[in-house]
Amino acid sequence: MRNRDGIEIRGPEIADAERVATEDAVEFVAMLVRRFGPARERLLSRRRETQERLRAGALPDFFPETADVREGSWSVAPSPADLTDRRVEITGPVERKMMINALNSGARVFMADFEDALSPPWSNVVAGQINCMDAVRRSLEYTSPEGKRYALGERLATLVVRPRGWHLDEKHVLVDGRPAPASLCDFGFYFYHNARELLARGSGPYFYLPKLEHHLEARLWNEVFEAAQRALGLPQGSVRATVLVETILAAFQMHEILHELREHAAGLNAGRWDYLFSIIKNFRHRPEFVLPDRPQLTMTVPFMRAYTELLVQTCHRRGAHAIGGMAAFIPSRKDAEVNATAFARVREDKGREARDGYDGAWVAHPDLVPLVADVFGEVLGDRPNQKERQRDDVRVTGRELLDVRVPGGKVSDAGVRGDVSVALQYLAAWLGGSGAVGINNLMEDAATAEIARSQLWQWVRHRVRTDDGWEVTLGRVRSVLAEETERLRTTQPDSTRLETAATLLDQLVSAEEFPEFLTLQAYQRLE
């Protein structure tokens, strides 16, 4: 489809795509792209400049020039009624059956994920938008190949949408000959088709904002919200956004991010997996930032405690919700012992977050909703949240955020093999159109795959030795990759895709210059 005003949709023909890419909706997205695309490019250039400073030895710190924001007395806008109690939130891809199950799960909020849980061939992007439109209108239903029917119940979770990050393009939508920012496509289509309908139903257009690295990136989102609301004649403040603090750079700017969005801010979320990836990526050339095996990077290690406690204190000082991390366990249908052990760990993890002052937390599977709701209920009682807990006892310095030493931390052969296996399986699934993948009873998405491949790159570059004495060399990683590829070949329906994933993982680990995001590399292989 080519629009006379320089807008082109290059995706393949897809049933019902005209419901999403209507002439008016496409023009609305194009307006956002033309108005805000140049500012987005400048912010991405700023990211590259920051990377150069970090590589030259600089370390992030709290900005002296924004001290008045951190020290000032101000609050974000009060939360709307359906975002006041967020004690358990479920996340998942914008796939029809999974959305129905998530919305019916009993969670207070469902985050429909166009980002880390989405593999973005054009068919998935369009289907996700259609599914969201149907969910908003309560007409979403699905019949399985076996004839089982799924439909929405009476009580649904509040819908919140996570668009893709500022760094990603949507190659199927061209505006004036250039790929549109994927973030503005995801936001624009969803907002145009659903904002009025949501407000008429007593809710609103709510969003999760991923991977911000600077408060000016939050300012740009705020400007997008203001322009979108004006364009559709909606009240300012209709949009509400929760920001995922999932980069080490954003951890130093939590007050500033909330301040930029304060009319539209709904809270901050501790995006733990991308946060770890961000630490590896930003300090990849420095040996003191080498991290041990991923299972040892728990929320109780000192630098993660500093980050999560600072987030609660910041949010509650500003009247915003503090949302905890992901419980990624997928219950087994066969092994009750595995479930009992995992449920105990989830209860311990979420209990700590609730006692620390968090107002809610994420789960990846409906079976965890009652458990986490119960854990937060024990602390909250009849209260919808605990914003009144100011956590004035918290004192977090920049040094504590950056001191990534893990007591007893080590790199093991099992850790290397685990990273290879998770990254390989995830990439194979992603190339096949699945962005959220169950691996070893855990829901893995792009964030965990990013940790896996970046750890491998880091360990090879710093010639790390495992706990039994062998050096993590590129040759050793390639040997493990070959073994894992062969092992998985019998379980993979498409061996060609597995081979492509293995080649891509090899390129990510062996690259002389660290590839910024694996999704940027993999996206070029999708239609």
Keywords:
alpha/beta; 527 residues; 16 strands; 19 helices; four-stranded antiparallel sheet
Descriptive notes:
The structure is a single chain. The mean pLDDT is 95. It is globular, with a radius of gyration of 22 Å. With 527 residues, the protein is an alpha/beta fold. The two termini are 16 Å apart. Helix content is 47%, strand content 13%. The protein has 19 helices and 16 strands. Strand 10 (206-209), helix 7 and strand 11 form a beta-alpha-beta unit.
Give a brief description.
The chain has 527 residues and is an alpha/beta fold.
Give a count of the beta strands, DSSP E runs of length 2 or more: 16
**Shape estimate:** globular
Q: What is the rounded distance between the termini?
A: 16 Å
Residue stretches low in confidence (pLDDT < 50, at least 5 long) are none
- Count every helix, treating DSSP H or I runs of 4 or more residues as helices: 19
> What's the alpha carbon Rg, rounded to whole Å?
22 Å
What does the main sheet amount to?
Answer: 8 strands, parallel
Overall structural class, as computed from helix and strand content, comes to alpha/beta
Strand content is: 5-15%
State the helicity in percent bands.
40-55%
Strand order of the largest sheet: 7-4-3-14-13-12-11-10
Q: Give the oligomeric state.
A: single chain
Mean pLDDT: 95
